């Protein structure tokens, strides 16, 4: 659990603050993640463990800002992608998006909440404060 949460935190921070890296010799499957990048091991870990799949078959996009829906999806996958039978009722969570089950599961389990007025903020950049609060709730302790 500690390795997972540490790797997740590093990746969220990297995806939020890193500039685009130059494409050079790459290691499969992502052409934009080089073996010399400081976050290489973490990317390999989350990919190999099915927590993140990248933005395409060949792109991880480490410079992309992590959204609230992305983090919910990572935690949902880390929990084995359990069946979801309820909707949180967020008006901005599309019915068939990649994150739909994840957001509904996370809300049902008290891991995430919305902004009010039925909004979750699926594509909003996740803040450090939100990352800390969500990971705390997910882990069940500080």
Overview of the molecule:
The chain is mainly α and 142 residues long. Helices cover 40% and strands 0% of the residues. The chain has helices at residues 2-17, 40-48, 68-78, 100-108, 128-139. Helix 1 crosses helix 2 (40-48) and helix 3 crosses helix 4. The model is unreliable at 16-27 (pLDDT under 50).
**Radius of gyration of CA atoms, rounded to a whole number:** 15 Å
Mean pLDDT: 86
| Proportion of residues in β-strands | under 5%
Q: What is the number of helices?
A: 5
- What is the count of β-strands? 0
Write a concise keyword list for the protein shown above.
mainly alpha; 142 residues; 40% helix
Chart the SSEs and their pairings.
Layout: H1 2-17, H2 40-48, H3 68-78, H4 100-108, H5 128-139
Helix pairs in contact: 1-2, 3-4
In short:
With 142 residues, the protein is mostly helical.
